[in-house]
């Protein structure tokens, strides 16, 4: 199972093992990670699962598609490494992935 570390805006981190094929959002929800609201349940329609892919990992994650990039225009703290965690699928190649969470999802 791939291991993912979620780092809160205040620096606290939580490392979890996720099923390959699941999304970062689902992994956060299943493991009660604060900071991922996920109001739409993963249908890429609300942007409340915004996260930042760690710089060391950004080139290993599949790029965002147009629907996701359109929603990322609406997040409160966009960065070049912003992603919607519902759109990032976990794979064995992402074992060790580090994800940073914004200060707010609104």
What keywords describe this structure?
2 iron, 2 sulfur cluster binding; iron; 2Fe-2S; alpha+beta; Ferredoxin; Ubiquitin-like (UB roll); metal-binding; 106 residues
**Spans of at least 5 consecutive residues with low confidence:** none
| Global structural class | alpha+beta
Quick one: CATH class? Alpha Beta
Largest sheet strand order? 2-1-5-3-4
What multimeric state do the chains show? single chain
Please report the number of helical segments. 2
Largest sheet: 5 strands, mixed
Beta percentage is 15-25%
Percent helix among the residues? 10-25%
Shape annotation: globular
Question: What does this entry look like structurally?
Answer:
GO terms for molecular function: 2 iron, 2 sulfur cluster binding; electron transfer activity; metal ion binding. The protein has 106 residues and is of the alpha+beta class. It has a single domain (3-100), classed as Ubiquitin-like (UB roll) (Roll), CATH 3.10.20.30. Helix content is 13%, strand content 20%. It has helices spanning 24-30, 66-72; strands at 3-7, 13-17, 50-53, 82-84, 97-100. Strands 2-1-5-3-4 form a five-stranded mixed β-sheet. A hairpin with a 5-residue loop joins strand 1 (3-7) and strand 2. The mean pLDDT is 96.
């Amino acid at each position: 199972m791939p291991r993912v570390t979620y780092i809160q805006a205040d620096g606290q981190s939580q490392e979890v093992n996720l099923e390959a094929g699941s999304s970062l959002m689902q992994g956060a929800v299943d493991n009660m990670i604060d900071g991922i609201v996920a109001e739409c349940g993963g249908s890429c329609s609300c942007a409340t699962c915004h996260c930042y892919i760690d710089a060391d990992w950004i080139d290993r994650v599949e790029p965002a598609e147009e629907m996701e990039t359109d929603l990322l225009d609406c997040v409160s703290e966009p960065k070049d490494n912003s992603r919607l965690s519902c759109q990032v699928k976990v794979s064995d190649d992402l074992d060790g992935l580090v994800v940073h969470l914004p200060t707010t999802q609104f």
